[in-house]
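Take a look at the protein record below and tell me what you see:
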Amino acid sequence: MFIHNIDPVLLRLGTLEIRYYGLFYVAGFVIAYFLINYLAKQRHLNITSDDVAEFLIYLIVGTVLGARVIYVVVYNPLYYLGNPVEISALWHGGLSFHGGFLGASIASLLFIRKHKHKGITFYKMADVTMFPLALGLMIGRIGNFMNGELYGRITELPWAVKFKDAAEPRHPSQLYESAKNLFIFSVLWWLKDRKIRVGKKGDKDAGDHYMKLPDGFLFYSFIILYAILRFLIEFVREPDSQLGYFFGWLTMGQILNILMLIVGSFMMWRLIKK
């Protein structure tokens, strides 16, 4: 068993604290800037470095707003109805990944609309953005572990972690999620240059015709992979105390992931069918 006594503060300068969590998120956006620039050039997207910087601002605003709105509406509506001032208190925590993903998608559509004269499509940008998103989530979950927050359920496994705020050893579910996001990144990286065979079954010439994966394939691959893996990890994550379990065993996160999987699978089917 690992005893979690990690100080989440890297450096203290008087009243100013520099935390690992904040540095990890800054690192995530720096990685996103350079990685999107690299992949945009590789895929011949008509965007400049300044466009990428602007795009990241859109993503940050959309992610935060979406994550907060969905958390307030879905995870704790009664509390915020009685305490409306707390809705803007982001420093008290309360962000939803699914809301952030939705908000970032809407922000991307607004960015695309503004730059439609450059011939950029939503799917082209979305495919590129999934790579830094997976890496950013990987780094962010390590930050959650450093903070000793969002830990898992009680366990007696050898790698259990005793967190300061928990009476019993817990699953280090933050690290499970970090590994999950690294896995998703690896799969997407392997897929990005793959080609698919074109032709009807039984066609002798089908094996000689290949085409690149359609725009949007990586986007929906991320959605499907994330939904499945996050659904499984939810079995060892501590559910939100104000919600508990639905139907005796499902968490709100699992319900949202089921919806995410249904939408992602349907859209992937439409994409492949075309």
